[in-house]
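Support case: coenzyme A complex. Customer-provided input:
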Amino acid sequence: MIGVISLDRRGAERPGHVRPDAGEAELSYVFLPEAWGRGYAAEACTAVLGWFADAIPGEPVVLCTQTANVPSMRLAAKLGFIEVERFEEWGAEQWFGMWSPVAVSG
Ligand SMILES: CC(C)(COP(=O)(O)OP(=O)(O)OC[C@H]1O[C@@H](n2cnc3c(N)ncnc32)[C@H](O)[C@@H]1OP(=O)(O)O)[C@@H](O)C(=O)NCCC(=O)NCCS
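Agent response - structure generated as follows:
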């Protein structure tokens, strides 16, 4: 195993939402440092998003990462996430973005 990608429901108590009822599907990723810089995370996350778009058509996916996390910000942009808002959490500025299967296919 070289990394983990997860899709979880974002808790209503957290800041950052795109739906009034919250509970959005949220993408997270973490790879071992020796696997960075090879495009593995982008390839694997693209596959996860493709699977999700088939499994639950039309539902957006959200993502939250520190703005200081340059590789993660780059990956989010590469995957097609667009910025919704920024806020402070865990003592740092967070970037909150959304991916929509409609925006990607259309
Ligand atoms: C965030 C994280 C997954 C990004 O990993 P990554 O390997 O940089 O991401 P990618 O899979 O998109 O790979 C991109 C790099 O691979 C390079 N690459 C090399 N060969 C490649 C290929 N065949 N195809 C595509 N990209 C390739 C790209 O040029 C790019 O390098 P660059 O960023 O220097 O331009 C990783 O930094 C990580 O696990 N961090 C710790 C956990 C973390 O911070 N998670 C987010 C918490 S919210």
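The first strand starts at residue 3 and ends at 9.

Case will auto-close in a few days if no follow-up is received.
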